[in-house]
């Protein structure tokens, strides 16, 4: 897979490229990652990429010409173009999987200032948002999306490392512990020290269900629970009632 980020601030991605898992993935050529500065495409004699909003108002708006020319220079039949904007589809693990498995060349367009000229939207395949908040620019969002997608590519991390992640099975991840067995009076649950794999798996599923009920009940709304999950949910409810009583 190749990721191309169109940005006014290529240096924003320097530490991303040179750190940890992403660095290794790039070295092993499991992914290609490039940034293109769309200022290099402006035909404006002062190198401007933005202008004041038509109709008046605060701030500056990114102009069509440098962005669309830049986009056309990197785009091919294999490309899928996303635009980072708070108005877009909410990014989630499902979309990360879709990008990682279906797209050969992901182009990510980062905005800055007050936003994009509306006509630029007709050149992109999807608008994507990280959530209901406004960033100073799309770079932070592009970095998050690149990270979430790259770690799902084959051989970047072990399959088992992400199959238990939060959201992978529609639930939040179970609690994890490491040594020491006791820290400031808090003990690692005995089951995790038992070496009994079936019990550990069951405990983890139950804790995942508990955590999800507590923190993200919305994730359970349309879930089709397995027989085992329904049994564990009954146990959790019974324990809660006991706790209250
Ligand atoms: N650009 C500015 N805010 C954003 C957000 N919430 N998500 C994606 N891109 C953005």
Automatic annotation (TrEMBL):
<keyword id="KW-0489">Methyltransferase</keyword>
<dbReference type="InterPro" id="IPR029028">
    <property type="entry name" value="Alpha/beta_knot_MTases"/>
</dbReference>
<feature type="binding site">
    <location>
        <position position="111"/>
    </location>
    <ligand>
        <name>S-adenosyl-L-methionine</name>
    </ligand>
</feature>
<dbReference type="GO" id="GO:0005829">
    <property type="term" value="C:cytosol"/>
</dbReference>
<dbReference type="InterPro" id="IPR023148">
    <property type="entry name" value="tRNA_m1G_MeTrfase_C_sf"/>
</dbReference>
<dbReference type="Pfam" id="PF01746">
    <property type="entry name" value="tRNA_m1G_MT"/>
</dbReference>
<comment type="subunit">
    <text>Homodimer.</text>
</comment>
<dbReference type="GO" id="GO:0002939">
    <property type="term" value="P:tRNA N1-guanine methylation"/>
</dbReference>
<dbReference type="GO" id="GO:0052906">
    <property type="term" value="F:tRNA (guanine(37)-N1)-methyltransferase activity"/>
</dbReference>
<feature type="binding site">
    <location>
        <begin position="130"/>
        <end position="135"/>
    </location>
    <ligand>
        <name>S-adenosyl-L-methionine</name>
    </ligand>
</feature>
<protein>
    <recommendedName>
        <fullName>tRNA (guanine-N(1)-)-methyltransferase</fullName>
        <ecNumber>2.1.1.228</ecNumber>
    </recommendedName>
</protein>
<dbReference type="InterPro" id="IPR002649">
    <property type="entry name" value="tRNA_m1G_MeTrfase_TrmD"/>
</dbReference>
<dbReference type="InterPro" id="IPR029026">
    <property type="entry name" value="tRNA_m1G_MTases_N"/>
</dbReference>
<comment type="similarity">
    <text>Belongs to the RNA methyltransferase TrmD family.</text>
</comment>
<feature type="domain" description="tRNA methyltransferase TRMD/TRM10-type">
    <location>
        <begin position="1"/>
        <end position="221"/>
    </location>
</feature>
<keyword id="KW-0808">Transferase</keyword>
<comment type="function">
    <text>Specifically methylates guanosine-37 in various tRNAs.</text>
</comment>
<keyword id="KW-0963">Cytoplasm</keyword>
<keyword id="KW-0819">tRNA processing</keyword>
<dbReference type="InterPro" id="IPR016009">
    <property type="entry name" value="tRNA_MeTrfase_TRMD/TRM10"/>
</dbReference>
<keyword id="KW-0949">S-adenosyl-L-methionine</keyword>
